[in-house]
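Hey,

Quick one before I head out. I ran the complex with zinc ion overnight. Inputs first:
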Amino acid sequence: MAKIKFTYNTETCRYEPVILKPKHVMSNIAGFLGVSLMIALGITYAYHSYFTPVKETRLLVENHDIKAQWDLLDHNITSLTDEIKQLEIRDDNIYRTILDVEPIASTVRQAGVGGSDPFQDINTSDTRESEMVLNTYKVLDKLKKQMYIQTRSYDDLEKILDEKQRMWNSKPAIYPLNYKDIRRTGSGFGWRSHPIFKRLKFHSGLDISAAHGKPIYATGDGIITTTRYSKSYGNVVYIDHDFGYETRYAHMSAFTVKEGQTVKRGDVIGYIGSTGWSTSPHVHYELVHNGKHIDPVPYLNKNLSEEELEKIIEASNEHDLVMDY
Ligand SMILES: [Zn+2]
């Protein structure tokens, strides 16, 4: 049962029940709600006044950290770009120059850069941050393509280098005898008076004299194509060096290789002798390039001293010293 409030009436000198009219009830309710609202607003304001700075401070710290990391990333991307540029320069100006290969055209190096925008889906916002992210994606994509082209270039250069290496190893480039074993170098490449027929005859090789039995070496990598005895050459060995080169070694006392055998530069292929049309122990050394005999002297070991090489060239021009015919 609701409590009834009483008030003292000074006119009637009696306690009389307080009868609340609806207007007063509404006024009281409005007052209560007003005070409640004020209290609620006060609490909310106090909450935000205290807590918001903490949240903002945290966000500011996070933002600062992200910016520092972004700057570091940006710095690393710039360094990477510089390094790739250096690799490209070294590739074009050093490796390709040494290997005698054309530099990669800039249009090829830039291949795939540009064209349709593969990042259009990312470009959904025009904020500065979104633009930074988009640009970074583009730079990384460009670097990825440059790296791919550079890697392919190194693969190509490796193959070219292997082939050049094979060519350098195959090309006849040393003396067929150990220099200390050489007694003298006789007739060289060219026309000379034939010792028996007394008329000019072309001498197609270089005669090098050494003691009987001294080793004769392959002057480059290759495959033995001929080992035989012929009336004029005596025991002779032919080596196919590929790249159009062939060498022949005649008048051997014996050969140590078989047809079809692979030899490396410096391998012993036989021994000094005087078989066939020969007047004294020596090797008749021939060099054939693309089917034509050429002078072997310019292909001899470049490690010889100038004096030694000069002696050989001088002797090879001395056609009176005839060792074979
Ligand atoms: Zn000869």
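The chain has three domains: 6-75, 77-170, 179-316.

Talk tomorrow,
K.
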